[in-house]
Amino acid sequence: MKRLIINVVLSVILVYCMSINVLADVGPTDMSLSQRVFDIANGSDNILGKGVLLSHEENANARFKSGGVDHTHQYILASALIILNNDKGSSILTNKNYSENLLINTDWPDELGNETDYGTFAGHFYDPDTKDNWLGQTSPTAKTRAINYFNSAVSAYESGNISQAIVFLGRGTHYIADINEPHHASNYTALNSNHTEFEKFVDDNRALYKIENNSLNMGFYVEATNTKLDTLIDEMAHESKALYPKAMNANMYDEAASLCINNAIVRVTQYLYKFATTTGIY
After folding, report:
1. Rounded to whole angstroms, how far apart are CA atoms 226 and 274?
2. Of 1.10.3720.10, 1.20.1250.20, 1.10.575.10, 1.10.1240.10, which CATH number belongs to 31-279?
3. How many CB atoms sit inside 10 A of residue 245's CB?
4. CB atoms within 10 A of CB 3
5. pLDDT digit string, tens, across residues 211-231
6. Which one-letter DSSP state was computed for residue 138?
7. Are 266 and 260 in contact (CB under 8 A)?
8. CA distance between the termini of the chain
9. Is the N or C terminus of the chain more exposed, i.e. has fewer CB atoms within 10 Å?
């Protein structure tokens, strides 16, 4: 009888321990940002996902480089996730698996064959004054895609498909980052400007540009909540376009890079927060 009781107790303990291990392996139960996110935000070259092949640099396009040896998009998003976690606490967005999937999907639009617009990358541009991309099209633009992905993410989340919502949201952050690069907001490509040279400088020096204390003033969150996404995007695009003269001057690259990266981190944080408040996450 005593042996039977001991066996039963051991069995219960074993089942309990197994359940703990299962829970530990299920991403959605862990709301802590992964170390990879922190590493990327600290300038690690070891990005998530397969990235964009270096050979893609030979294309006549202009975009915030990401993947391969180019890491700017993931750096911006990782920084935004840390800020959001610091200011608003843990959530689905800071879950280990979901946050890493956000980073992978912020690179997705730059992979040839995805949303590269037959190699023109036209839909990665948006001039807030002309309302079009560098081909003169009003759609697709970085703005239309950022809004469409936001709306798709909200719909997916409200339908209970969190994983798909994260995919859409991650892709949307790509276009928010693009809009905050001055050439993208001015419709200047690698064909008629220093676009590629400037973005290479930004990527090489990205870790120098950070938001102080990884925290934002409450006003940025209030603005994100109370302002329509359409209006927010036009605001950031105007800010970005105003930096173009600095981004064209090699002697001012550091100043321009600091401003556009910091702006991008703030705006991506707002984009994430607006999604979170729209869906009731926060």
Report:
1. 9
2. 1.10.575.10
3. 12
4. 7
5. 999 999 999 999 999 999 999
6. S
7. no
8. 53
9. N
